[in-house]
């Protein structure tokens, strides 16, 4: 329990310090999904794009994955404390594009063939919780797609409570923020990578009916996303015993 509290405190301090250093970058990180989904929804609502055919479907998929990759690139820059510029935005997004594409495609295929089995069931929630760390493994650690499953087992072996507790609290708060909507339910999709964009994915559904709910939920989601990135950085390559030793060592140096 002591390690749990200390990890969360350290992550919170890291997040606050990060916000203080580069507030404008955080504004970019918050606005990116809202603005891009507004533009994409508008384009695909035009008459010549509204037809539900294979070409439009493939185009949607490609655009979505590219946006997902570049948004993760933005989050990576912010988490590392680097400035967001056009060159850094481009390089960080392209660096993980292949892995984002691979993982998203595999989950999409699985959803396509097992959609009836997953729809509204406990299996969907189980998959969402189980594969949720894939997001940080890709954009924080830059792990290749082929290594994710093996590394996931190792990650959960010692850190499952540290990881899932904030996620469950996040979902409960989201339900409290939007009690009249299905927002929290929709975010638990068959493709865990969809979680990155948060409520912004539901832009067209909520912007006219509940704009304040959408914005408040997206603010909360954005800071939760960064907070869990900080938590991941702390716990991904250590265990409670190793962290306790390092704290004692650092305390000894400071005396």
What this model shows, in words?
The chain is mainly α. The protein has helices spanning 2-21, 23-45, 54-80, 86-118, 122-131, 134-139, 148-177, 183-187, 203-206, 211-235, 240-254. It is globular and about 60 Å long. The model has no long low-confidence stretch (mean pLDDT 83).
Show unreliable segments. none
* DSSP summary: helix tally: 11
Shape: globular
Order of helices and strands: HHHHHHHHHHH
How many E-type strands? 0
Could you estimate the helical fraction of the residues in percent?
over 70%
Number of domains: 1
- Kindly report the average pLDDT value: 83
Into which percentage range does the β-strand content fall?
under 5%
The major sheet is characterized as:
none
Distance linking N and C termini:
25 Å
Radius of gyration of CA atoms, rounded to a whole number: 19 Å
What structural class do the secondary elements suggest? Answer: mainly alpha
Keywords: Membrane, Transmembrane, Transmembrane helix
Transmembrane segments: 27-49, 61-84, 120-139, 160-186, 206-227
């Amino acid at each position: 329990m002591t390690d749990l509290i200390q990890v969360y405190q350290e992550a919170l301090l890291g997040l606050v310090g990060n916000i203080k250093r580069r507030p404008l970058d955080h504004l970019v990180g918050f606005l990116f999904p809202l603005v891009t989904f507004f533009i994409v929804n508008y384009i695909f609502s035009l008459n010549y794009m509204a037809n539900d055919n294979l070409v439009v479907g493939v185009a949607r998929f490609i655009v979505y994955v590219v946006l997902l990759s570049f948004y993760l690139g933005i989050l990576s820059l912010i988490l590392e404390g680097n400035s967001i510029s056009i060159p850094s935005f481009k390089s960080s997004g392209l660096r993980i594009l292949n892995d984002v594409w691979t993982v998203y495609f595999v989950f999409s295929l699985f959803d396509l063939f097992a959609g009836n089995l997953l729809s509204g069931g406990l299996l969907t929630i189980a998959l969402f919780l189980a594969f949720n760390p894939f997001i940080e493994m890709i954009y924080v650690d830059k792990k290749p797609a082929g290594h994710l499953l093996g590394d996931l087992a190792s990650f959960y072996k010692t850190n499952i409570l540290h990881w899932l507790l904030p996620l469950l609290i996040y979902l409960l708060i989201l339900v409290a923020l939007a009690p009249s909507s299905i927002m929290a339910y929709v975010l638990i999709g068959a493709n865990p990578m969809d979680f990155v964009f948060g409520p912004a994915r539901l832009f067209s559904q909520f912007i006219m009916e509940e704009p304040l709910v959408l914005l408040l939920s997206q603010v909360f989601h954005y800071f939760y996303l960064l907070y869990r990135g900080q938590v991941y950085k702390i716990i991904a390559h250590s265990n409670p015993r190793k962290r306790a030793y390092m704290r004692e060592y650092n305390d000894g140096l400071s005396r």
